[in-house]
Design brief:
The chain is an all-alpha fold and about 210 residues long. About 65% of the residues lie in helices and about 0% in strands.
Length: about 210
């Protein structure tokens, strides 16, 4: 149930800046890299692992009917599938993938808003509500990205000249993008933290949700 959107958010912002500015760090790495092969080392045999002791089985409380119904609703409404898509998203160098992430996040926010949490136990209800609110805020914030959609869909060819012209017209645009990216990071952190709390609550009740 974890949703590491902090990484997605940072990669999103970083990709926009690096694509626009046309930085090529791999060229520098190629010039400074050594051409001499590293000497081969004979690996030492790995130590034998110590025998594991049987851990005591923890007594987990039975999952309330409301929790079981909640997990069923998550699957039936496609929430789990959307979360997996967002986890698998690759933002680097692909503006179209970023747009897919925006659409998936909007769908996730819409679906979460239809799920009733009033009957859930507090250890699950609170992080679910936090996750839902953060997802809604992030979906809204992604739509407010200071770069037009038509520029994003135009790829590197459109983004580079547009960014250069924008910086010439508005020297503070870099700060605007930085502020936008910092907010994305904060919202992503809130989603990741609440997602971890949801996962812990599921473990408490012995429920395995991917």
């Amino acid at each position: 149930m974890k949703l590491a959107l902090t990484v997605i958010s940072a990669a999103f912002c970083l990709c926009l800046f690096l694509t626009a500015c046309g930085e090529k760090e791999h060229a520098l790495a190629a010039e400074t890299g050594s051409t001499q092969p590293a000497p081969e080392e004979t690996p030492e045999p790995a130590p034998e692992p110590a025998p594991e002791e049987d851990a005591p089985v923890a007594n987990k409380p039975a999952a309330p009917a409301s929790v079981i119904a909640f997990t069923t609703e998550l699957r039936e409404k496609g929430v789990i599938e959307l979360i997996e898509k967002l986890q698998d998203a690759e933002g680097g160098g692909n503006p179209l993938q970023m747009l897919d992430t925006m659409r998936n996040l909007n769908q996730l926010s819409d679906k979460l808003s239809t799920i009733e949490t009033g009957d859930l136990p507090e250890d699950l209800k609170q992080p679910v509500n936090r996750f839902r609110d953060a997802a809604a805020d992030m979906a809204t914030h992604m739509e407010e990205i200071p770069i037009p959609v038509e520029v994003l869909t135009g790829g590197q060819e459109a983004m580079g000249p547009w960014f250069a012209q924008k910086m010439a017209d508005d020297p503070l645009f870099g700060q605007i993008m930085q502020d936008w990216g910092e907010t994305m990071g904060e919202l992503g952190g809130e989603m990741e933290e609440s997602g971890s709390a949801i996962e812990e609550a599921f473990e408490t009740y012995g429920i395995d949700v991917p």
